[in-house]
Amino acid sequence: MERINPPGLGKPSGFSHAVAAQGRLVFLAGQTALDADNRIVGDGVVEQFERALGNLLTALRAAGGEPADLCSLTVYIVDMDDYKAHAREIGRVWKRLVGAEYPAMAGIGVNRLWDVEALVEVQGYAVVNR
After folding, report:
1. Cβ–Cβ contacts within 10 Å for residue 86, how many?
2. In the chain, at which end, N or C, are there fewer CB atoms within 10 A of the end residue's CB?
3. Is residue 94 a contact partner of residue 50, using CB atoms and an 8 Å limit?
4. Three-state SS for 63?
5. pTM confidence score
6. How confident is the model at residue 129 (pLDDT cuts 50, 70, 90)?
C-alpha cells in the first residue's frame, strides 16, 4: 500500500491525500457505537468514535484484514463542532487502535444517523493482501 501526499497539497493531518493499493477489496459497512445487543453505548463523541471504529476493525479482521489495510474511511458526524473540539482525543483513539498511518479520509456533517443516539458513524474499505 502506498500513501501519497504530494508536496503541492497541504500537509495532511489525520488523513492521507491518496492511497494506492493492490489486493482483495473489502467494503466495510457503516458502524456506529452499537454493542452486541444493538444498543448505542458511550456518552460522548470520543467514546462513541472508539466503539464505532472498534466495530469497523472487528469486521475488517473477520474479513482477514488488519488496521494497516484501511485505504479509505468516511466519518459521518452529527455535531461537527463537538467532534473538532475533541479532535486530539479522537486522534489518540485512532493511534491506539490503528497506528500512525492514515487512509484517505473524509469527515461529513449530517443531521442525524439511523439511531438517533448515535453521534458518529465510520464506513470505509480496505485492501487485504493475505
Report:
1. 17
2. C
3. no
4. coil
5. 0.91
6. confident
